């Protein structure tokens, strides 16, 4: 993405937010707590996120 495209994208988001049409995704506190619990018992962050919670570490999904 070029700098100009990035700027136009951010301008569009700002305009949409002002119009009340853009809302970012809310934080999933339960998901964060589950990952933190796995991390606290010694699981690596990658394993905690991918295997324990179901978040893929790879863009194409779990291979």
Model description:
This protein is mainly alpha-helical. It has a domain at 25-63. It has helices spanning 3-18, 29-40, 45-52. The protein is elongated, with a radius of gyration of 17 Å.
The portion of residues assigned to helices is 55-70%
Computed CA radius of gyration, to the nearest angstrom? 17 Å
Unreliable spans: none
Number of strands: 0
Sheet having the most strands: none
Strand content: under 5%
Q: Mean pLDDT, nearest integer?
A: 83
Q: CA-to-CA gap between the ends? A: 28 Å
Give me the number of helical elements.
Answer: 3
| Order of secondary-structure elements | HHH
Assembly level: single chain
**Structural class from helices and strands?**
mainly alpha
Outline? elongated
Please summarize what this structure is.
The protein is mostly helical. The chain has three helices and no strands.
Summarize the helices and strands and which ones pair or pack.
Layout: H1 3-18, H2 29-40, H3 45-52
Helix pairs in contact: 2-3
Features:
63 residues; mainly alpha; 57% helix; elongated
């Amino acid at each position: 993405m070029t700098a100009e495209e990035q700027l136009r994208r951010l301008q569009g988001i700002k305009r949409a937010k002002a119009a009340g049409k853009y809302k970012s995704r809310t934080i999933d506190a339960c998901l964060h707590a589950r990952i933190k619990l796995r991390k606290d018992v010694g699981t690596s962050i990658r394993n905690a996120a991918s295997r324990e919670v179901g978040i893929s570490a790879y863009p194409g999904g779990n291979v």
